[in-house]
Amino acid sequence: MPPKIAEVIEHDICAACGACEAVCPIGAVTVKKAAEIRDPNDLSLYEKGAGYLVCEGCLTCSRICPVVDGFIENELANVRKFFAAKSRDSAGSQDGGVTSGILKTLFNQGKIDCAVGITRNENWEPEVVLLTSAEDVERTRGTKYTSDPVVAALREAFEKYDRIAVVGVPCQAHSAKLIRDNVSEKIVLIIGLLCMESFHQDVMLGKIIPEIMKVKIEDVTKMEFTKGKFWVYTSDGEVHSVPIKDVARYARNPCHHCCDYTSVFADISVGSVGAPDGWNSVFIRTEVGEKYFDMVRDEMEIMEDPKPGLELVGKLIDMKRKNNAEHFREVCKEFSFETGIRNETV
Prior knowledge:
With about 350 residues, the chain is an alpha/beta fold. It has helices at about 5-10, 20-25, 60-65, 65-70, 100-110, 135, 155-160, 170-180, 200-210, 245-250, 285-295, 310-330, and strands spanning about 35-40, 45, 70, 80-85, 115-120, 125-130, 165-170, 185-195, 220-225, 230-235, 240-245, 270, 280-285, 300-305, 340. It folds into three domains: about 5-70, Alpha-Beta Plaits (2-Layer Sandwich), CATH 3.30.70.20; about 75-200 and about 250-330, Aspartate Aminotransferase, domain 2; about 200-250, Nuclear Transport Factor 2, Chain: A (Roll). The protein is built from twelve helices and 15 strands. The longest helix is centred in the last third of the chain and has 24 residues, at about 310-330.
């Protein structure tokens, strides 16, 4: 019998987080941007199906798939603390540099020996990397709105390292949590990023930037979604923006079924929404998150009651779910297994 992830792929809502590739004991799964699965007969990639001929039926992939696991109704219920923060070393960061600051400090303190993250080249092409030092973290500063299977890198990380931090968007934080619960305790910290949607690399670089924003990708220095618009900053000092609705329709199809905006399954969630310009909003969600943030607190400036605060975060959660929840519930009816949106606290 095919694993549950085969149905997730067949209905085109695979988040391509990379978790199944990370944990499959026989390497039957290979995740790329369209979440293809390797054909065991010729080792080439095809769009639909699964490597059933080599699958041993362990079903590990089903236990760590965020779509199979489903979503949480109230994604703020597990927030222990909410505040704004800014790294004392935030130069070159998207906002307050908190994610980079956490990783750099933990490396310097010897609390982690690897972090899984994503960097980019001068053409904004993303690359998943294993970071092993504070110096490596500098390469990952800034937000990238294109998707890559970040969690797949854990396959290599598990072989080499024992204290691993994972940084990712909600689907990646979710699968990292499932891997930590079901497969390996080597993941010691999960930092989740706030995310409304992401884009395939060829769509962002070949359509949105040149045709909608009308700029050259090599001139772009920063991208961000804020205040109802998609903003692009260029090396000549110019700022370009369009309403989010003009680009949202180009998001990956799985993003239109996602019902997690704030990375509810992370230990610490980090974003910019709810905090003043130049600061990050920080959500401490677990005892683990509290412990690790306390280790780095001295390297941060803290704002205890930021505005506009959780009220704005809540509005964006509702905005994301307004259409996505219906889409997800509809596709759930097609599955042979039960999943959905659960009314519980993580």
